[in-house]
Amino acid sequence: MTTRVESLIEELSAVGVDIVARGLALASGGNISARIDEDTFVVTGSGTWLDRLTPEDFSVMSLSGRVISGSASPSSEWKLHQRSYAARADVNAVVHVHPQHAVLLDALGHDVRLITLDHAYYVRSVGTTPYYPNGSDELADSAAEQAAHHDCIIMGHHGCSALGDSVSMAFRRALNLEEAATATYRALLLGDTKTAFPAEALAALHHA
C-alpha cells in the first residue's frame, strides 16, 4: 500500500466517523471513496460501518471496474463512484450518504432550497434522479449524468452523492446539502414555500 493510499484511507476513515456521528448514515449505510490517480480510486468495502473503518475495509479499483487490491469486496455502490470519476476529471472524492431530510423532501416532491451563504457556496445546485436499485447501472449512470451539472445529487428514495476536489470538500457539500434540506423542511412547516438565497448574488459568491 502506497503512502498516498494510506493517507486517503486515514482521511476517509476520519470522515466516516463524522458521517455517522452527524446522522448522515446508519449502520452499514453509505459509502465513500477518493481518487488515487487518473486511473484508480479507493472505496469502502461492502457492508462496512463508516464509523468503524480500518485499512482492511477498503478496496482499490481501476476506473475500468477491476479490483486491484484490498481484502474487502468493494461496496455494492462502486459503480456510482467509478462513473462519477469517469464523468468528472475534477472530482477527487465522492461521499455517498443517506441524509433523511434531503431524501424526504425529494420523495415528497419538494426542492431543497439553498437559503444561507454556506448552502449556496458549497452546494450551488442540486441534481436529482428517480429511484433505481442500489448498485445498479441505472443508478450509477443517472447520477453521473447529473454530476455533469451538479456537485450534489439526490437519488430518489435512497440517498445523496456529494462530489468534491478533496475528501473534505465532498463532505462539506454533503453536510450543507442536509442542512439546507433541514432548513427547507422547517420553512415548509412555517408555511414558507419561496425563501431562498438571492439568485442575483450567486454569480459573485465567495467565501472567507
From TrEMBL:
<dbReference type="Pfam" id="PF00596">
    <property type="entry name" value="Aldolase_II"/>
</dbReference>
<dbReference type="InterPro" id="IPR050197">
    <property type="entry name" value="Aldolase_class_II_sugar_metab"/>
</dbReference>
<feature type="domain" description="Class II aldolase/adducin N-terminal">
    <location>
        <begin position="10"/>
        <end position="185"/>
    </location>
</feature>
<protein>
    <submittedName>
        <fullName>Class II aldolase/adducin family protein</fullName>
    </submittedName>
</protein>
<dbReference type="InterPro" id="IPR036409">
    <property type="entry name" value="Aldolase_II/adducin_N_sf"/>
</dbReference>
<keyword id="KW-0479">Metal-binding</keyword>
<keyword id="KW-0456">Lyase</keyword>
<dbReference type="InterPro" id="IPR010916">
    <property type="entry name" value="TonB_box_CS"/>
</dbReference>
<dbReference type="InterPro" id="IPR001303">
    <property type="entry name" value="Aldolase_II/adducin_N"/>
</dbReference>
